[in-house]
């Protein structure tokens, strides 16, 4: 029973009960104003059902927090295992990023720890590959469309280099900067995977593609992930591509990932890694306005909502490519 995510289901049940209560109260108010109220038995039954759901959710969540959490948190003392070699292979995903890819490659190549930069071009229709190659990157073509396939190919390329033990995954749109590598390196002795988080307000540019709705929605989904894997970490961002991984861990993890999953692939990556027992630590990174036009889940709040709902479905139930 300790393996079941009681906190996750408890939170969802309590939220559902509260939502029903608010909805019923709203309808009750409208009907009272215009027609004397709902029939008593309907109103009473709806309030009882919502209250029962809230209390049931509280009980389930309490089971995890007060009964099972101490056991789930049992682990050795804080680990400190430097990776040995500190050189990196940087892999950048790119799709129609001609305007930004040259700057991104130059930025990462300028860092002292970066051995090489690999750009994975996912069927770009512009000059992304040519600009990346002229800027000094190793260019790889991924012909299968979709963000999941592009990220999966990038990580696969990264672990193929024997002269580096670490792979840094990022995007080629200039939303992230190479100087944050130093922060990742401070965290990697404690983790198998260090995931960047854009949640620190002081480290975000004023204007980015991450709207207020996306910012808090992303935080909410991250907390659902934390509730599912309570005791395994603190999580605030499930949508960022920027992450540093030990190659040994990636070799074990990659066969368990589904590259057909599209824009919600990063959440799938984190959920699968946690389920397999990998150590994940978040690292605050700077987040900047992108160069060029966004093509992913940040193009609009409606699209972000769709991606977020698919993330929630994957976390709560199971991951699928649709």
Could you characterize what this model shows?
By secondary structure, this protein is an alpha/beta fold. It has 2 domains: 6-72; 88-316, Spore Coat Polysaccharide Biosynthesis Protein SpsA, Chain A (Alpha-Beta Complex). The chain contains 10 helices and 7 strands. It has helices at residues 6-35, 40-72, 98-109, 128-134, 147-158, 181-187, 212-228, 247-253, 265-275, 301-316; strands at 88-94, 114-121, 138-141, 166-171, 193-197, 243-246, 280-284. The chain has a 7-stranded mixed beta sheet with strand order 3-2-1-4-6-5-7, sandwiched between helices. Helix 3 links the parallel strand 1 and strand 2 (114-121). The radius of gyration is 22 Å and the shape is globular. It starts with 5 loop residues before the first helix and ends in a 6-residue tail after the last helix. The mean pLDDT is 93.
Features of the shown structure:
322 residues, alpha/beta, Spore Coat Polysaccharide Biosynthesis Protein SpsA, Chain A, 2 domains, seven-stranded mixed beta sheet, 7 strands, 47% helix, globular
